[in-house]
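To: structure subgroup
Subject: Chain for Friday's discussion

All,

I'm putting the inputs and outputs inline so they're searchable in the archive.
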Amino acid sequence: MRRLQVGERWIVLSAGLALVAAVACGGGGADEPMPAPGFGALSGQTVLVLPVQYARQVPGGWIGGAVNAQEAARAADGEITFALAELGGRATWVTPDQQMDALARQPSLEVFPYLLSVDEVRREGKGLRHVRDPLYGEVRVLAALFDARYAVLPLEISYESNPPDQGGGGQLAVLTVILDARSGTVVWYGTVRGDGAQPPASAGALASLAQVFARQISP
């Protein structure tokens, strides 16, 4: 197994494929309100659920009890996949594992879901209305493999502290972008926040955040 560093993210190469996660790094927060439970635009659609691109350290370590950023991001992918499947809803979700399986059958496609070109999204934040290449092209290629209309991009998972006048403490949060995969339009950009009832580095806190995420996103 080999590890390569590309910018702020580590790539782990094994068996010809790679799994990627991000080291703790910066990134702006979002003040858009969460979507109403049940994101109606996704109803009846095939939707890409892209991998978590960045995971930041939280009080007590890494989310989900992971030992590093890579494991934290992949643990988050697993919990989100499980929560969406458990909830059901009226969308057909295309998971990161399914995306990688499809790409393995199309070796000529130079797209890697765990290392998407998200710099523009992170830089422009909530002011971004349309994504451009290379991210637009990457999402289009993935969407075409499944005839998917939308893509859900969990950009970064981190810990948000509450102001002292709110009693302190805090909660896990996932900065999320929903894209129209055909036009590149940003359908929604904002933060989905957990309930803060469990220690942020615990597996329970990550599972709880994934459940909230699924309820907010699933139509």
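Points worth raising on Friday:
The beta strands are 2-6, 9-14, 17-22, 46-49, 54-55, 92-94, 150-161, 170-180, 186-193.
Residues 1-31 have pLDDT under 50 and may be disordered.

D.
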